[in-house]
Amino acid sequence: MIALTRGWSLPAAFGAEIRRWPSSLKVGSAIIGAILLAGIFAPLITPYDPYYQDFMKTLQPPSSAHPFGTDMVGRDVFSRVLYGIRIDMQIGFFTTYVPMTYGVMLGALSGYFGGVLDATLMRLLDIAVAFPFLVLIIVIISILGPGVPSIYIAVFLVAWSMYARLARAEMLIERGKDYVLAARTLGYGPMRVVFRHALPNIINSSIVFSMSDFVLNILLVSGLSFLGLGVAPPAPEWGAMVAEGRDFIFDAWWISTLPGLAIVFTGTGLSLIGDGLSQRFGQPQRSLP
Amino acid sequence: MSVGSTGGEPLLDVRGLVTEFRDGTARVVANAGVSISLGRGRTLGVVGESGSGKSVLCRALLRLIPSPPGHITAGEVRYRGRDLLTLGEPEMRRIRGTEIRMIFQNPMSSLNPVWPIGEQITEGLRVHFGMSARDARARGIDLMTRVGIASPEKRYGEYPHEWSGGMLQRAMIAMAMAGEPRLILADEPTTALDVTIQDQILSLLVELQERTELAMILVSHDMAVVAETCDEVAVMYAGRIMEAAPTKNIFEQTRHPYTAGLLESLPTVYDEHGRLTPIPGQPPDMTGLGRGCPFADRCRFSSPDCASTPIALREVAAGHFSACLYPARLDDAAG
Amino acid sequence: MIFIDYLLRRLIQMVPVVIGVSLVAFIAIHVVPGDPIEIMMHGRAKPDVVAAARAELGLDRPLPLQYLRFIGGALIGDLGVSIIQNAPVADIIGERLGPSVFLLTYSTVLAVIVAVPLSLIAALYRGRLVDHVIRFAGMSGFAMPPFWVGLLLMLLFGLYLNWFSISGYGKTFPDHLRHLFLPSVTISLSLAPMLVQSLRAAMLEVLSADYIEVARSKGLTPRRILIKHVLRNALIPVITILAVNIGWLLSGAVIVEYLFAFPGLGSLLVRAVGFRDYPVIQGLALVFACLVMVVNLLADIGYMLVDRRVLKE
Question: What is the pTM of this model?
């Protein structure tokens, strides 16, 4: 099976495995590893409280005391970016992997059994695809009200569709293969065949996709926060920080630019991991089914 | 050594062709010093299993080997006296379009799906001969008739997905004949077709050849196909020619254990019992070939020195060449 | 005739999806906890006023009837009345539809102009440095939030170089092109990386096809092969990939319109959500879905012109 790609936490026994990784996977894992460490150990890295407002020190450019400068109410931007790692990575993680679990299951079951279940699912997927993702989320949030719980609910309602499609497409190929037929002839129940035999083989494309999805979800959260529909100030979420700095863009570029850079950096690391994984799994980069 | 020449200057004379593929550290020698020659109007059959290098050979002759992994590293390909390997690319393109044409294995995927068939047949005429659209179309219809496609005017504008495999292969042949070529390289032209259609296509090729003094190299893994249509046969294994001779001699006086093995493994009507006799062992790993005969480990006539002595084609009878060190052992065994 | 046949078939296939989408939009809005009337009146109105307003908006009828009224209205162009602006939703949306479509088209054109050559180069020089550079740039570009890119462009062009205006729409066509340049570039920069990745894979597939080898064996020049054979066949996946990414294009447009204070559907959506203007939100949901359908239909037309095989399906 697949080892989770967190470079710093693998025991030395997996050293040989890591050496075989494509370079993009190594670099991406290193970046994400560093980011996660920075987020976890933020209090040790920076002495400032991300919420502390010092009106004596507003709008200060980057300096040795404040590597990223201060914002319009005197908060240290660097600490806010660091603490923001916790928020964005956490939301990104759950909005990606929770829908992935039931999305893959639904798709696998649907692809395996076919019939009415499959036809219904395909119709649902058609409808889900018909909507631009952000628009759909915004509409749902308009009902539920802004805030993080709404984001979770909205994404959980919608985001499974891509995984379902991927898993279904793979399952359609996989179910004709010999080992599946063998398992069935041996009398294994369909659930067992699907989950214990077929699933490990069809999950690869979903895992590769989950990296892109992670990036997209971070962009989603930060985008919603930028619009004022997501994480509310004064929480140090990167998108919200960019929004806060918007009015000061010409005078104090660092308030908006640097959190955005954090998004780019994180996203690039995740994309690199995704690219490396797809090479590692030996699959060509697939366009959407 | 060369084979298959008639009196006079051969049309095609290949000497010592070496084609290599390199991917990182792995290196495969797909053609390890191949020499063949072909006279005007003659047909040479090249037989071998997958991986023997026969398809690579065709592409190497036309310099169609994709060049990052593949390179032609040695040898000469003399066509009408000139070495094709030294020609500039524009001149090579002209030859590809007019004098030496290739027919490919899978007709279903060899034609561009979004172009009408007729236009593909005549594309070469427009590009290399500057024909107008109208003239090209007339010529295209004529070609289609010659290869046996019914109602060519109607079918000229149709698309590949509307035709069957056999008809598509006829279209490919029409396309190949468009520039009045002198040499056709046919890479497994019938392998992807039904048996009944195979026969038709082969007859078509032979007929076209007879009418225009066309030379042909016919590559196949099927000895029966080659037996019917070729004047001479060359048997390839692991990138080398193992035996080459006029067709009748190859079949009746085999002078190489590999060829003998191939012939024995063919099912015939005369076999009493159901068992087939395959050649024991596996095809060789092309990245790790030793100095000697690549067939040595599967050969029942081999001696210890076979695996270490480099092989070369030698004339063992009139016009009959073999790379085996001990061809006489076949006679002893046959009895 | 075959063409019309094909298009009709595609249109009919879309009908259930449009119905499904309208249902979802309708149900979602009407499941709102909390009463839109109350919200609108800030909870300060007297009960009989509230009841009257509710009756006027038809909110006291049973849900299925409301849905039918919604659909019926939508078919004749009546999408209800905005709670906030007190104007017909259809009018509000109508005056912003043009600018948004312009913006979307402009962005798509820019994205294609950037993505197609880059993906082709990456495919032709696969594995070499150029390919790696392009793919890496794609990965970073993918991670760049449109609002951030937009802000940076505003900074660059607003403060340092005064070439393009940073807001508004303008009056004449050339004016539009100037005003919309920055927002369109922003959207296309977020769209292009996705296009490049998919297109590169598609180009690689086309380049390795048998008929391309056959074309080379005919002695055609690389240029001719590229233009007449490779690109022609690559158009099919280009159309597919564009159509598939329409959702992303629209999403990016929402954020960018808001950022650049552009009078389009996206900024309307954000405003409507802020004010809980549900008729507008509902109407917009339907309009967005229809936009996606239209794009898919355009894609079908595109396929039809490029590849005869689709007519058989």
Answer: 0.79
